[in-house]
Amino acid sequence: MPNSEISVTVKLFAGYQEAYRMSELVLKFPPNTPVVAVRDRLLSEHPELEHLRQITRFGINLEFVAPDTLLQEGDEIVLIPPVSGG
């Protein structure tokens, strides 16, 4: 059976980066997966990030995209939570 997964790079910022203690992840998803599934996976692995669910914006390959945008092999994903100054 052929490998039916696609690989994407996820750049982590702010709370996501603090939770994972790294700036980048490589994750695999089935084809036709929307970008919102990336956020949902990270929140399931780190429930303390749940407060970011409604306020995270999505970028693919340096462009803001809608949550239902489908992932493609090799995409670079960014999850952009609000940044607070201080």
TrEMBL record:
| GO BP terms in the entry | Mo-molybdopterin cofactor biosynthetic process
Q: Which Gene3D superfamilies match?
A: 3.10.20.30
Which Gene Ontology terms cover its molecular function? nucleotide binding
The answer to keyword Nucleotide-binding applying to this record is yes
- The superkingdom of the source organism is Bacteria
Keywords from the named record: Nucleotide-binding
- What InterPro entries does this protein's entry cite? Beta-grasp_dom_sf (IPR012675), MOCS2A (IPR044672), Mopterin_synth/thiamin_S_b (IPR016155), ThiS/MoaD-like (IPR003749)
One Pfam family per UniProt: ThiS
Annotated SUPFAM superfamilies = MoaD/ThiS
Q: Name one GO cellular component term.
A: molybdopterin adenylyltransferase complex
Family, similarity comment: Belongs to the MoaD family.
What is the protein named? Molybdopterin synthase sulfur carrier subunit
